[in-house]
Design a protein that fits this description.
353 residues; alpha+beta; Beta Polymerase, domain 2; eight-stranded mixed beta sheet; 11 helices; 12 strands; globular
């Protein structure tokens, strides 16, 4: 990334601030975006160095691995508090058959060592490698849509928890989130009354869902979460250092959708917590609401949520083509590097060895 700017401030993106190379890359793209919007695109350039892009990729991978590790260690601590570690771990994959709308759900029992030693994506791909199906062009494998880890208690617990699910956004979603924040998409959306009502979708990368028997148990779970205070010995058992940021969960935001009248019947309570220098979104809902979301694909389901998000991005890209170009740019650089680079009038992309 050759450019006249050699000093990069700390990025406003929380997910990149702890990786200097990634931070520099995001700040470079943001500075260029500001210049493009001010001066126009004609004659402008984006310059990338292949070696530096490789370093950005390694930096991104480290960020994901560290975040996932903290997510699973937090889930380990929570499972001990909620159901005394008497649980079964499962890697779950949602896959789609290429060329069709058919989806499959696969699951495999795993142990704690596999969670801490491999990323969720690795576990998902490991499961996918076992699957093949007969397509029109011969044997093919399904396409990975989503993967997550389920913590399932073996016995009934006083909180009425049936399962706890950890999830991380897919890589393409994370890069899209980077573009969202480079362009301050939340502000763009709230300025447009047609898009304003869906502006809440910009959320954190790492999340936990807790499924309980009924809505009456949701408050009890959050009361327990807010009162947690781990001693050094307990944290050490899960490989977590004893410090201010790990002793307890710090509540940042809460949204209560329990009791709301929705046609789909979906209800849940969501909260955002800070722990170990990361933020985690925790959602607690009843089993009835969870099944509606999973099996009936309500408007609150992940699939519907993702569809709305992409629709918003397309609407913004229509109004601001540079936004759409940046989405395509990051997907080209890091998801589909063997495809042709994206094109926008007036701007030149140069790749240097």
């Amino acid at each position: 990334m050759d450019d006249a700017v050699h000093h990069f401030p700390e990025s406003t993106l929380w997910l990149v601030t702890q990786e200097p190379v990634l931070n520099e890359f995001i700040c470079y793209l943001k500075d260029k975006k500001d210049r493009f919007l001010e001066e126009g695109l004609m004659g402008q350039e984006l310059v990338f160095q292949r070696q530096q892009l490789q370093e950005v990729r390694r930096s991104f991978d480290r960020m994901v691995c560290r975040g996932e590790e903290k997510l699973h260690r937090l889930c380990g601590l929570l499972s001990e508090n909620f159901f005394a570690q008497q649980l079964q771990l499962k890697s779950v994959v949602i896959a789609q058959l290429p060329g069709t709308t058919q989806r499959l759900k696969l699951q495999q029992d795993i142990d704690k060592s596999e969670i801490y030693g491999r990323t969720d994506l690795d576990l998902g791909n490991w499961l996918m490698e076992k699957m093949r199906f007969q397509g029109p062009l011969g044997w093919d494998k399904p396409r990975l849509i989503a993967n997550f880890v389920e913590y399932q208690p073996l016995y009934h617990n006083r909180f009425g928890i049936n399962k706890m699910i950890s999830r991380i956004k897919a890589e393409e979603e994370i890069w899209s989130k980077v573009v969202d924040e480079i362009f301050h998409l939340d502000k763009l959306v709230t300025q447009d009354k047609k898009l304003r009502e869906l502006s809440y979708f910009i959320k954190d990368v790492f999340g936990i869902k807790i499924v309980v028997d009924s809505n009456e148990q949701i408050d009890g779970v959050f009361a327990a979460l807010n009162s947690l205070n781990w001693e050094s010995e307990k944290l050490a058992m899960h490989g977590v250092p004893y410090e201010d940021s790990t002793r307890s969960l710090r509540l940042l935001e809460v949204k209560n959708h329990v009791g709301e009248s929705k046609d789909s019947g979906w209800q849940a309570m969501k909260a955002v917590y800070s722990w170990w220098s990361k933020t985690f979104e925790v959602q607690v809902q009843s089993m009835n609401s969870f099944l509606r979301e999973q099996e009936r694909l309500t408007s609150e389901s992940h699939a519907a949520f993702k569809e709305r998000r992409e629709r918003i991005r397309l609407q913004v890209a229509d109004q601001l083509p540079l936004f759409g170009f940046y989405l395509e740019l990051l997907r080209w650089l890091f998801i589909h590097p063997n495809q042709d680079p994206p094109v926008i009038d007036g701007l030149i992309i140069r790749m240097k060895d």
